[in-house]
Amino acid sequence: MAQVFIQPSYGTPEARRYGAATLDRAVPFRDAPPADRVRLHQLHPDGRARFWGATEKHDKRMATVATGDVVLLTGGKHVRAVGEVGHSFRAPAFARRLWQPEPGKCVWSNVYSLRRYRTVAVPYEAIWALPGFTEGDNFMGLRFLDPARSAAVLALLG
To answer: Domain of life here (predicted)?
Structure first.
């Protein structure tokens, strides 16, 4: 079964700016590291993909992310989008080029492309109603779900 993780992506002005740059539209990846560019082209033959990422404090967990895993992108008490991970890799310089953070802002070192990306509007209440979830949980920060919760979320999302 695919690993499912939840990641805030629309809750702050900075995240919304990053999302506008790489979630709202597919972007070229010609300046990705060469080995990663080869894998990206295998998964995204047109040379463009949607991207999201995570900071270096999540390196250990992000190292477990694989093609086919599913991410729920959240903000404003809703799951705003769902995507299947294409290629996950560590490339801080590529991340800086993608998101152009303000000087002194934390830059992501982990980057992943998205396939089968779709926008949704699933209120947190629908997730809270699933087995294993807690009412009032605002899903702050990157969170990886256990297999039972992953299965419940995937069933809800179809």
So the answer is: Bacteria
